[in-house]
Amino acid sequence: MEPHDQRLLSMGVPGLNDVLGGGLEPNRLYLFEGTPGAGKTTIAMQFLLEGVARGESVLYVTLSETEHELRGVAVSHGWDISSIHVREMLPTQDSLQPEEQYTMFHPSEVELSETTLRLLRDVEAIKPSRIVFDSLSELRLLSGTSLRYRRQILALKQFFAGRQCTVLLLDDMTATEHDLQVQSIAHAVVRLEQSNSDYGAARRRLLVVKYRGQSFRGGYHDYKIGRGGLQVFPRLVAAEHLNDTALTKLPSGLEALDALLGGGLEKGTSTLFIGAPGTGKSSVAVQFAVAAAERGEASGLFIFDESVNTLRTRCNGLGMKLEPHLRSGLIRLKQVDPAELSPGELVHEIRQAVTQHGAKVIVIDSLNGYLNAMPDERFLIVQLHELLTYLGQSGVATLLVGAQHGLIGAQMQTAVDASYLADAVVLLRYYEAEGEVRQAISVLKKRGGVHERSIRAFSMDQHGLHVGDPLRRFRGILTGVPVPIDGPATPPP
User: Fold this and answer.
1) What angle do CA 470, 473, 474 make, to 5 degrees?
2) CA distances to 105, 119, 136, 317, 490 from 114, in Å
3) What is the separation, in whole angstroms, between the first and last Cα of the chain?
């Protein structure tokens, strides 16, 4: 939920008001900077359209693009910008010649040039409450020297100071040396960044460099540009969502599995299912979601490693009644493409599942896919900790699936060591016995209460999931090649 402050101006960009602590303080000068393609023009248009929606007069001053190009951008987003006053201030070819360059200042209006005075006369006539200058690179080019450039920006700030107008300056950062002059003049500075990875879509994020006299959300925030404009995904801070939740049991619907887990999993906790591919980790996690749906509780499944059709086919083959709950909306499936979806957007989708759809069970399958969506594993652990803390405080049972490298043996490797973050860890392993490859399930830890220490047999068929008796006739199950124990089974300690 974005903070609402009547005195602050809404940006008209989903999520950005939250980052800015409510919006922009009116009648100030702001700088939005970023490389070409980062979305500065898009964010400026959304800012002006928000003003139009509130009945304000707005003005877009373009120093680089033509009005026809701007209207093309608007059409691509499905916007009607007929209510936005657009003024082209494109320099002529002659004006770029060295002998034609002169100061834009004029004694009649704080030494501004005749060209800019014509613009300011338009401002006097239109009386906009929101105005955008796009972009400063052309103004910097015409200025010639950094001193003259700074004087022009100061003159603009002084001119608009008493005219009840909020000014957005856009800078494409194409100058060879990134100066901080405009940053020092502006009331707030927002930087838009984009990076291109070796594979997948471009990743975009923004940072509030400064905001005088206003508390804002620091750090980087992912955003995306789609049809309809720019959307920001504020960085999750779990400490802002403190709630007291009762650790009630979440049964799986399988009596033996619940007995192994000490009655089931607790809401408000996280559980990591780890094991080799094919051991049944995903199926056990989905079983908890199906059991919750049968009790009338909503779940959200975020799938990285398999398609929705494959998941449906697998569940049908195991006799799981997934389809009715998908149709009713109690279980929502989201197939995640790590090459396209940013980490911030994924967290946003999970939060939406909890806040808007009331999900009490969240399944992330798998952490290996989650890792591929992150630029650095160090950030994965930090963000995952924030996410799990938030979900726990929201009373959600989070089920994480982690695939290990290898199939059978003691030397199993885990791509992401998140076991210390999870409240419970369930291990599924292959082992060899009597000429067959079998499966075993055990609980390594569980902070929510007591659990069985035994290693139980586990299998899957068309009738569902089966958790068998403790495997007391073998020693060394976790090595993958256990040794039979002769004689009667020893009682558990």
Assistant:
1) 95
2) 8, 9, 18, 77, 97
3) 51
For the chain, the farthest-separated pair of C-alpha atoms sits apart, in whole angstroms, at 106
Q: What are the beta bridge partners of residue 435? A: none
Nearest to 222 by CA among 96, 64, 38, 92: 38
Query: What are the phi and psi torsion angles at 285 (to 5°)?
Result: -65, -45
Report DSSP state, residue 8: S
Q: Which among 395, 405, 324, 328 has a CA at the least distance from the CA of 366?
A: 405
Q: Give the β-pairing of 249-250 and 265-266.
A: antiparallel
Tokens at 91, concatenated:
């320099």
Residuewise pLDDT in 10s, the chain (493 residues): 444 466 899 999 999 999 999 999 999 999 999 998 899 999 999 999 999 999 999 999 988 788 889 999 999 999 999 999 998 876 555 444 555 444 444 333 333 466 667 777 888 899 999 999 988 887 777 676 777 778 888 888 888 888 899 999 999 887 656 667 788 889 999 999 998 777 777 889 999 999 999 999 999 999 999 999 999 999 998 878 777 667 788 999 999 999 999 999 999 999 999 998 889 999 999 999 999 999 999 999 999 988 899 999 999 999 999 999 999 999 999 999 887 888 889 999 999 999 999 999 999 998 888 877 776 656 778 888 999 999 999 999 999 999 887 766 656 666 667 778 899 999 999 988 888 889 999 999 998 788 999 999 999 999 999 999 999 888 888 888 888 886 444 444 4
In a 13 Å sphere around the CA of 313, the CA atoms on its Cβ side amount to 5
- Please compute, for residue 321, the number of CA atoms within 13 A of its CA located in the half-sphere on the CB side: 9
- DSSP H helical ranges for 162-307: 181-185, 255-260, 281-294
Cα Rg, the chain, nearest whole Å: 29
Structure tokens at 119: 């613009």
Q: Do the strands 58-62 and 85-88 form a parallel or antiparallel pair, or are they unpaired?
A: parallel
How many other CB atoms are found less than 10 A from the CB of residue 277?
A: 15
